[in-house]
Fold:
Amino acid sequence: MGKLDYFYNMNLGVLFACAFLFLFSISLCGLFLGRKIAKKHPDRSKEVSDFIPSTILGLLSLIMGFTFSMAIARFEHRKELVLKEANAIGTVYLRSALLNSSNTQEVRSLLRQYVDARLEFFDAGSDFSHIDETEDKAHRLQNKLWEHVVQVTHTDRSAVQGLFVSSVNELIDLQAERLVALQNTVPEVVYWVILVLASIGLSSRYFTRGMRGKGGRAGVVLLAILFSLVFALIHDLDRPRSGITMVSQAAMMGLRRSLGEQ
Structure:
């Protein structure tokens, strides 16, 4: 598994601080530049219009809204996949009773190990070497499970045994889906576009206010904080393995406890 985008690996607090300092600094530059020009050319203050900064900030709000929606959709999809995979593993566990007793015990032992591997997959966080290790472990266990599927189909092709085969297929498919969902993040170029628009919009807004002799540092701080908070929230939703809004593994952990009791 390859390395994800630069923003994906950045600490959430560091990202917020960097975004705030950048937007605050560039807004102050616009404010001071506007005031400086207004002092030299006081007659030009009447020519300044709010049209450009308002349009840019409106476009920024629209893009941030779409990006937030995109990040939420991906976050919810990852949550759904955890539940679906836990249900699929539980189904294989129950349908393994359709096999003969020796195969049933072997399959259930493999499934307990498989659940542990899937929990390790999440616990790996952004450690890509560890993620690769957990994926290799999951693939080895899948191959062992598939050996039982092959054995079943060679000895019994009834519809009842077909239920077990289809459930193992779904288990394997969901493992691949979760890996793809992990890599399916908001494109990094979107974050850069948001930062560029925010910097242009805020600096031009405070430039016009500086030209008119209005605006102060309090307003600059407030807007920089608000934009940075939303930016950081989108980023946090887009990387569900760390940060504040992590995808819950409760379904998988509950399954592991139930399998351990049987």
